[in-house]
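Posting for a labmate who doesn't have an account.
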Amino acid sequence: MNHVDIQPRIPEPELMYSGHLACPGCGASLAMRYALKALGKNTMVIIPACCWSIIAGPFPYSALDVPIYHTAFETAAAVASGMKAALDQLGKSDVTVMAWAGDGGTYDIGFQALSGAAERNEDFLYVCYDNEAYMNTGIQRSSSTPFGAWTTTTPENHTKERPKKDIVGILAAHRIPYLATVSVAYPEDFIRKFQKAKSIRGMKFIEILSPCPPGWKTADDQSIRISRLAVESRIFPLLEIEHGEKYTLNLEPEGISVRDYLEAQGRFKKLSEKDVEHIQKEVDRKWEALKKRIS
């Protein structure tokens, strides 16, 4: 008789309570749920100013069943470095320290501390849930905002004209032990990468594409679909990079048109045909460059 593995691939324990303060359809809330399932109870979370400062709930309550340290916008990586050093001094080397920040606190305001921690190869996990704007303070442009996207500081007739910053390439250039991209639309890949990051000593960085219904102008029930379209259109490849050199592609996308992804979001409604063609060419160019790096 053949034995069938009936073990769930996603851990059952819940370390995030219902009743949190996220918007309906928030990709960042589902991402935190998956992350804590993967990392387990012995985790400490560092949260700078971001949506999750609100989602977690007001003091002394929290939606998370793990310790949280709220800190200033620019200091997630610095505080995580100090937290890990303090735990090591106490002999608690088995605690996973996770800095959890948005793109504003990662690509922009917190980048100096992040780059320093990466250069020192500090032993913690830094996670960026990337919703491509400063969503908590009113949907302002960040350096993660993609070309052609509407925000409140790039209004309809003046949408963003610069490309999104390549944070993955920048962190890979620091040659940290582990870097990965994950999507809430692919939970098994998500869980595996967080568990792998937990097992590695040194600096780890994980980028999560995190749909934001108010900021992306989408329906609450479309976040998973849009996340999948981002991967399948090659806008957001699922990959791993080890020590800045070994590139692994985790899923071969269908290579659908970027139009399917763009038209699903109101923030791109002012794009011209020429803009869509430009975005497609850029995605194709980056994809070919990535394929050359794949081990």
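Reply:
Got it, the structure tokens are right above this. Residues 1-7 have pLDDT under 50 and may be disordered.
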